[in-house]
Amino acid sequence: MSAFSNFHPLLLLVYVTVVLVTMFSSFHPIIVALAMIGGVLYFLMLHGVRTATKDLIYYSFVFLLIAVAYPATVHNGFTPLFFLHEHAVTLEAVTKGLVIAGAAVATSFWTKSYFEIFTTNTLLAVLTKVSASPRILVSMLWRFIPLFKIKWREKQLAQRGIGYYKVGSRVEKFRRAFALWRRTLVQTAEFSIVKPDVMKARGYGIAKERTRYKTRRFTKRDGILTAGLVLFLLYYIGYFTQHQTQYYPEISEQTLGAGHYVIIGLLMLLPFIYEAKERVKWRYLQSKI
Asked: Which residues neighbour 251 within 8 Å (Cβ) at sequence distance 6 or greater?
């Protein structure tokens, strides 16, 4: 369980949105690097070293692929480094390729971490004042993909056990695999879509006045984070032009001071810092028992 996930769900959505908008609106190399570092460190805190290492290896290849493919296909820029098939590979294109690759990796880690803490229970808590059927429908659709993976894996293992795929023709093997995939998809979709009707038939949501236990309340801690995000947005809008980076025809000079990087770094590293603080606090309290 993540300590940072204890903030209000809508506030968490606003926070991740602010992080991504800050990164993509500036496309500043250092800001993108801070966003990537913050996303990776928070993902590491959520999943541990082993899982995070596997993802880091995979996204390292993604990073390299984007960083190499961009300057190989885009030849804009004023400073050629070398020529590839009679086309210039420029410093500006290489730099922007690295920034685009970093932004893609940072977005992947931030979204993976967000959907890790924004569960179906959290979604139901946010939609607690909405009518019953849409609330159940949204939660079922949210669960559709993991449920489909589980059902697909179960059917594959069962069919392999009875020799369903043991045929000589590759075309026939593909046809059988596609038929199994289609049946699994229909079964999972039927379960996800019919579930709200089943709940309604059992009386769920019929009464207009229903008591609700609210597990997600807007607390003082949420207010502090909200104030911090508002102040950051005011700061970022005020210095918006100074955060912009132009890569063509030449890389624009950066006028940001160290204080700007500290402020943006605190925003990007906030979940990691908060998570680390809570874990240290928990271990300290355990040592006092």
From this structure: 91, 92, 95, 245
How close are the terminal C-alpha atoms of the chain, in Å?
22
In angstroms, rounded to a whole number, what is the distance separating the alpha carbons of residues 26 and 252? 12
Per-residue pLDDT reduced to its tens digit, 105-160: 999 999 888 888 876 666 666 665 555 555 666 666 666 767 777 877 887 788 77
Give the residues across from 82 on adjacent strands. Answer: 89
Distances in Å between the Cα of 103 and the Cα atoms of 38, 58, 83, 269 are: 12, 15, 26, 16
Measured in whole angstroms, the distance separating CA 52 from the mean position of its chain's CA atoms is 14
How far, in Å, CA of 121 to CA of 154, rounded? 25
3-state secondary structure of 89: strand
* Contact between residue 44 and residue 274 where contact means Cβ atoms under 8 Å apart: no
Cβ-proximal residues to 60 (8 Å cutoff; 6+ apart), any chain: none
pLDDT tens readout for residues 86-99: 778 888 888 889 99
Residue 237 to residue 246: CA distance in whole angstroms: 18
Helix (H, G, I), strand (E, B) or coil at 212: coil
pLDDT in tens, 226-235: 999 999 999 9
Share of the chain above pLDDT 70, in %: 79
pTM, rounded to two decimals: 0.72
